[in-house]
Amino acid sequence: MEVDLIIHNARQLVTCSSNGKAKKGRQMQDIGIIENGAVAVKDGVIAAVGKSDKVLREFKAENAVDANQQVICPAFVECHTHLVFAGNRLDEFELKIKGADYLEILEAGGGILSTVKKTHEACLAELVEQSQKRLDKMLELGVTTCEVKTGYGLNLETELKMLDAIAELDKIHPIDIIPTFLGAHAVSPEFKGREDEFINLICEEMLPVIADVRKCELNFKGTFKNKPFFVDVFCEKNAFNLEQSKKVLLAAKGLGFGLKAHVDEFTNLGCARFAIENGATSIDHLDATSEEEIALLAKSKTIGVITPTVNFNFGSCEFADARKMIDAGCAIALSTDFNPGSAPCPSLPFAMAIACRYQKLLPSEALNAVTINAAFAVGWSEKIGSIEVGKQADILVLDTNDYRQIAYEFGSNAVEQVIKKGKLIIDKNE
Ligand code: NIG
Ligand code: FE
Question: pTM for the whole thing?
C-alpha cells in the first residue's frame, strides 16, 4: 500500500498507546515500546505501527525517515500555559530572589497584575509576535500541541484580544493550540474590594460572549471549530475563593465549556473536590491537595496536572506529592505552566527532569504524563498523545537510543526531528 511517509529503524518506538483511556496508577509505567519499530503515515494520520521489517514490507512511501536506531515517541502535549502575554517580570524575579512572596507581590498590585497592564497596552500584532517566538522554542523542544489560557486581560476587550492572538497563532504556527478562557485569573484592580461584582461580570457578561466565540459566531477565523474549549479559574488566596470559583465553573458548565481549575497551588480552598464532582477535565497544581481529594481524583476521570517548574522557579524544596497520587491510582499529566511570573520555562523535558528527581516519577511515568495523559488533560485524546493507528502523526525522533535519556539529561535538547501531521518540520540533521 502507498503511504506518504515511513519513519523506520527505531531501536525503541515508544507508542504510549492507551486503548482510549488515560493512564492511571500502575498503568503510567506502561509506555508500549516496540523494538525495531516503524510508523507509516498517510494524509497526516498514522496508518500503521509495528516492526520495521513488517511495515517496510507492507507499505511503500516516497518519503522515509531513518531513525538510525534512535528513539521515536509521540510529540509532547503541553497542557497548561499562559503563553500569550506582553513584557516580562524581570524586576519581580529579583524581588523574589531577595525574599519577596509571590502572593504578596500580587496583593500589592504587581505580579499577574503587572503583566495585565503590559498586555492591555500591547497591540494584537505585538502579542502575536512575542508569543510566536515562545511557540518556536517549544516546538524545538518537542511540543506540537499547546493549551493556551487568556487571563491577562481581566476585561472583555483585552480577553478578546488575547483570544484573537490565540486564533492567529493557531493559524500561523505549526503547533495546534487549545484555547482556555481564564477571565478569573486575578481580581481586576478596578474591582478591588468588589470581587463578587467582578465574578458576576465574568459569569453574566463575559462568558456568554466567549460562548459565541467558541461556536464561531464571532469572527475568529473559524479557529475554534471542532476543538475543545475550556474555562479555568484561579482558586487561591488573593485571587478567588471557593464560592466565587464555583460560580465561574457552574456558569461555564451551563454554557457547555470543558472545565479546568487552578487548585491548591499555595492554599487548599476546597476547589479540587468541587471541580472533580463537576466533571472537570483537569485540576492543576495540586501542591496542597489532601489525601481525601487525592482518593476522589483517583476514582474520577479528571486528570491531575502537576507543574513542578513553578516550585523550582520559587526555589522551593516542596513539590506536589505526585508519587502519592500515582500510587493512589490517579492519572497525572505534567506541564511547564509556561508564564512570565511563576514559570518562565518553555521546556517540557526540563519539567520531566524535575518531576523525576523531586516528585519521584519514573521516566516512563513522566513520558506518559507529557503525551497521552496530557492529551486527555486537553480533551483531545482521540487525536493526539500516542502513536496509534488513526491518530494525527505528531511524532518525535530523539537523539538517543533509550527513552529514559529525555528525563535523565537536563539542560539540553534530545529532540532531533519533529513531525507534525505527517510533515517533517524540524530536522537537525539537515
Ligand atoms: O499557574 N497561578 C496563577 N497563574 C499562573 C501564574 C501566572 C503569573 O504569575 O503570571 C500559575 O502559576
Ligand atoms: Fe497556571
Answer: 0.97
